[in-house]
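Repro case for the chain-ordering regression, as requested:
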Amino acid sequence: MSIYDTLNKEQREAVFHTDGPLLILAGAGSGKTRVLTHRIAYLIEEKGVNPWNILAITFTNKAAGEMRERVDQLVGFGSESIWVSTFHSSCVRILRRYIDRLGYENNFTIYDGDDQKILMRDVCKMAAIDTKVYKERSLLAAISSAKDEMISPEEYELNAAGDFGKQKTAKVYREYEKQLRANNALDFDDLLVKTVQLLQTQPDVLEYYQQRFRYIMVDEYQDTNTVQFKFVSLLAGKYKNLCVVGDDDQSIYKFRGANIKNILNFEKEFQDAKVIKLEQNYRSTGNILSAANAVISNNVGRKAKSLWTENKEGEKIQLRQFDTAYDEAEFIAEDIRKNVGAGAVYNDNAVLYRTNAQSRLLEERFVSSNIPYKIVGGVNFYARREIKDLLAYLKTIDNGQDDLAVRRIINVPKRGIGLTTINRVQESAAKREIGFYDALRGLDLIPNIARGAAKLESFVALIEYFKGVARTESLSDLIKEIIEKTGYVEELETEDKEDAQARIENIDELISKIAAYEENSQDRDEKPTLSGFLEEVALVADIDSLDENQDYVVLMTLHSAKGLEFPHVYLAGMEDGLFPSYMTVTSDDPEEMEEERRLCYVGITRAKKELTVSCARKRMVRGETHYNKTSRFLKEIPEELMETGKTFREDLEIPTQNAYFQAKQAFKTKAFSTGKTAQQFTVTKGKKLDYTVGDRVRHIKFGEGTVEAITEGGRDYEVTVQFDKAGVKKMFASFAKLQKIK
DNA sequence: CTTGTTAGGATTTTT
DNA sequence: TCCTAACAAG
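-- result from build under test --
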């Protein structure tokens, strides 16, 4: 019996078809990862392919890690020399070796969205563009889609003839590119664009990678954009051993340039491509799958396919409607608690929503219900202020050409270097066409900075000192030295007590991430370098931090949930205007609604055993109360598949723009809630706390600590606790749910 | 040059 | 509602 016997007919066909182009259309839950991993195993074990010649591209680092792990289990040895990585990190690896051929230095830095925006602001200032008329974000969006389509600034300009707005954009695009180059920096899109440019212009480099990657596999193929497709087709151009796996029904990144034509064009670009459909679903119950099929069948533009399953019908889909989003959150928390009581672990449950902002209410509810949870998304760890500051130090030490980084930290912590001084340096640097940091090193050449000169000099001396440390000491020592010498943490502490603790924790985490990086490199027999660390850090997504070994409920957006599965799934906020989003509802492009529906399909098919969909009649959005109808997607699920609780009333559909009605509602709500608060007031206060000053207590998130003070707040007790790990926190007793220890 | 105040924007999704 | 960036005052 071999490992391939457990596959079905189509899966086996896909695994055994090793040579020549192959397109696998894999429906949700049809075991595509199994096919990919078994295919790799088959290549190595049966076909004698050197692992070194295999490249597998996934969407996230997490998926890459999992794939490697699973291949590891199937293959005896050698899996470590397979390249399994994301598009972006593959490109970085190639560019680090060869980008000097395009006139960059090999230690280029990578700009994230925030960096791009700062750079764009400077560009607009320079080009005298009013950012009130042309927003940085929309300019960047235009440039990004141009890059996705591999349109250069010059081409963009040609296309812009006659269109004033486009001409402006073209001008900005050109200047933006110039600045990036001057900073020796690439943005995310550049990583792909420059790699393709490199492969197109350097025959020997192309030849090398074509030889090396004789077998290429691409996961989540439906979400690739034009430049990614070009990258893959160049690499596979010689041997054509390219296997792509995708599902057009799960294409949810069109807004980011994902090009559905890549699936359709595949057979054109690679003639005699074999196409295999995987249509048996192993993940979900019959009811869940029927619901998913029913919803997605409303889309016109899709490849015909029919997913089926041998699984049992299972539970009906639970539909709940609530008065407010608070009620919804409360229900979800309680229901999860019920699941856990019935034998599930927290990890079996996931709550999915359309926008990150929805996580807040849920989080509050989970804290007060003592349910461990993890929120994926929102602000990336490496995008936090304190982390970016420290990374800017590291970047400055590593690559003095990154002006953005230098300017970020020149006065952080405060050194009395103000805007006027910085601008003078900037002007002088621009005039002489040298970098900001280089200008700092030749201070005497800059006019009118007599007063600031001494401070600037000591800043330069500090950086030069760090460079020395970087040469002789380990990375861990370097970061500690930076924190020490700059007094960064002390500065934080004096600034604001509330935030400071969390920020210091983040810094500690950064230190351990650096240590982990050093360890990992040593395991791989690589030398840990500053550039290496910065590179790794630039490309991590929040989803990568999900850890199956920890038991928590996962909260995330539908987009982040792609590729994951859970026994119990909650789709929250199923309301028109939220999901599908307001933008989509008001748009006159029907394609957008189809994409939104695909997103819904992705959400439904994440569920293995039980799916709960919920909505609220009334929801606070940016401080305003919105009255939403139930989502049109709910109406697309056949009624017989659903079960509604007592709380659901479909008849009640509230008009959105009726001022009188809203006023009436608001009045009612107010009247009602005052009464309720008064009640709560007595309840909470009447209830005595079972701990007092000096007692040891436990908090769900912050761990153990000692109560330092208890004060009577407006309607609740305010408790100050010194936590062992998390520092001092102030919180409301009824919200914090502290438990006394012993 | 630093600090405090205010006005405006954000929330559709992210490597 | 909350956060950021721009502006004004010390």
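Ordering looks correct now. The two ends of chain A are 57 Å apart (CA to CA).
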